[in-house]
Amino acid sequence: MGNTYRAMEISSPGVFSLVEERLPSPAPDRCAFRVEACGVCHSDAATVEAQFPNLSYPRVPGTRLSDE
Predict the structure, then answer these.
(1) Which of 39, 53, 57, 61 has a CA positioned 20 to 30 A from the CA of residue 8?
(2) Which distant-in-sequence residues (6+ apart) come within 8 Å of 23 by Cβ?
(3) What is the full DSSP assignment across 23-65?
């Protein structure tokens, strides 16, 4: 697995950008795996359209790279 990942990031509501970011190392009790493609759920669509209160941008729908 490489040291970076590519994703479609939302920089503001409805604005997408292809980004390449450093892949963080997993914690000792976690693992990392490669995802080739994923679907978009209703929550992801609502994030793109800023339908949730208190959203902060930029965001990558469908991902969680840290314990928030």
Answers:
(1) 53
(2) 1, 2, 3, 4, 5, 32
(3) PPPPPTT------S-----HHHHHHHTT-STT--SSB-TT---
Beta bridge partners of 21: 5
22 pairs with which residues across the strands? Answer: 4
Q: Which long-range contacts (CB under 8 A, 24 or more apart) does 38-46 make?
A: 38/62
Stated as kind and residue range, the H or E segment containing 5 is strand 4-12
Q: Looking at per-residue confidence, does 20 or 64 come out higher?
A: 20
